[in-house]
Specification:
heterodimer; A: 227 residues; two-stranded antiparallel ribbon; 10 helices; 62% helix; disordered C terminus; B: 222 residues; alpha+beta; 6 helices; 10% strand
């Protein structure tokens, strides 16, 4: 995945958070019902939609249902897309809503729709814990061949609070910068940095449990506990 | 500020460095800090590894899910096609066209505004230029060719070659002065000024002049 990000001292142009003219044209054609354009949009974003749905639902089959539901919603309402954000962000918001609807159907009395309470609790408990200087043991890339490892990682992602997961997804999958995420999520950039930081902290711990870690740096910094 | 908080903030800067989100001067500072602190260097390595593993996981999941996602596309396609005829029946005539136009208008509103402004400006410039040109157009009445004066046989052309005596050129006209000898003795000669515009029109003008011509000893014109 190529990442080309600019340092924060360079003013972020709003255009960076929007689609290219070619993508806008593709969206326009898809909105007019052109199947080729719809298929191109589907292929570009179906993976992120699947991962978003799986993160919320924790169930692979349900996540596939949400992928279908999401894209049917997308193509029904593409003519209302105003181009104020990237179409990918817009699609992921639809995926998130479709996942929540699915969750509500499945567990009507349990689901917490906004996740805000959990996020506030998470941030309150975070207390500036430093990152662990731990490297995953073995060969994690090879371990990814194993289904149970991948399920464990998917669970780790699902364990994040909705806010942390959303910021993680926008950064890692949509390639948005901190400033762009801030604009899309309508929260300060500092908050975005903090959420992304804590999302990584938690993932680091979760992956440490999955793969095991080498913690050569532990003796240099007190208070860092690896699991 | 507590030591723990300082470490937390330093770790956030480390994360921003890995994400290429730091300003150049901050980046230099952090790189120097990493070079001087093995723990920080190891944290940077761990962060990079985390991102790599998560991206590889996402890629692997996507590859495995591809057949299912292809099947889902066919279901989406069928659903969209099933909806399309119903939409045609239920929608008012031209609804789809209006929707497409509304979308186009939304996306290209800026282009449209720019085009309109440019069009109005071009029309204004053209109108201004046209009005300026009209002031230079010779009215048709002036363009009508008056009867050319007949150069009578008594015409006496002054000059060795018998051609015009004086010739004056301006930017777009050329004037020639002829002298017509008097038809009756004692009368003054008549000057004919022939003005030729370099365009297509030709407007001769006859102007009576008091002769101030060189004369011989008998007072006769040379």
């Amino acid at each position: 995945m190529n990442r080309s990000r600019q340092p924060t001292s360079i003013p972020k142009d709003d255009e960076r958070a929007r689609d290219s003219p070619e993508e806008i044209d593709e969206v326009r054609r898809a909105a007019c019902g052109e199947l080729d354009a719809q298929n191109a949009i589907y292929r570009r974003y179906n993976g992120n939609v699947l991962a978003t749905a799986r993160g919320i639902l924790r169930d692979r089959d349900d996540a596939f249902d949400v992928v279908q539901e999401t894209f049917v919603r997308v193509f029904r309402s593409l003519h209302t897309f105003k181009g104020e954000s990237k179409v990918g962000s817009w699609i992921l918001r639809i995926a998130k809503n479709a996942s929540i609807d699915q969750l509500r159907r499945r567990r009507p009395n349990v689901v917490r729709l906004d996740g805000s309470v959990g996020a506030e609790r998470d941030l309150a408990n975070a207390s500036y814990e430093p990152l662990a200087p731990t490297i995953l043991r073995g060969n994690p890339m090879k371990e990814l061949e194993r289904r149970e490892i991948r399920d464990a990682i998917a669970d780790a992602l699902a364990d994040l609070s909705p806010e942390h997961r959303e910021v993680w997804c926008m950064y890692e999958w949509e390639n948005l910068s901190y400033a762009e995420i801030s604009r899309v999520a309508k929260v300060p950039k500092g908050t975005i940095m903090s959420r992304l930081f804590h999302a990584r902290q938690k993932l680091q711990k979760s992956l440490g449990r999955v793969f095991g870690t080498t913690a050569d740096g532990d003796e240099h910094e007190e208070g860092v506990k690896t699991t | 500020m507590s030591d723990e908080r300082l470490k937390g903030e330093r770790d956030e800067l480390l994360m921003a460095l890995i994400d290429r989100e730091l300003a150049p001067e901050q980046e230099l500072t952090m790189r120097a800090a990493i070079a001087a602190d093995p723990v920080l260097a190891r944290k940077a390595q761990a962060l990079t590894q985390l991102s790599e593993v998560m991206r590889a996981h996402q890629q692997r999941e996507l590859e495995e899910a591809q057949p299912a996602l292809d099947a889902i596309w066919h279901r989406i396609e069928r659903e969209l096609q099933r909806e399309a005829p119903r939409a045609v029946v239920s929608d008012a005539p031209g609804q789809r066209l209006r929707q497409a136009f509304a979308y186009w208008l939304t996306v290209y509103r800026g282009h449209l505004t720019t085009g309109l402004v440019a069009g109005v400006a071009a029309a204004a410039i053209t109108a201004f230029a046209m009005s300026g040109r009209q002031t230079q157009v010779v009215p048709p009445a002036e363009l009508a060719q008056p009867a050319l004066p007949t150069l009578t046989p008594q015409l006496r052309l002054v000059g060795a070659s018998g051609v015009d005596v004086e010739k004056t050129e301006f930017s777009n006209v050329e004037g020639s002065v002829y002298l017509q000898a008097p038809t009756t003795p004692g009368a003054s000669p008549t000057s004919v000024i022939w003005i030729v515009r370099h365009a297509t029109d030709c407007v001769p003008t006859t102007v009576p002049l008091t002769p101030t011509l060189p004369t011989n000893s008998n007072g006769e014109p040379i």
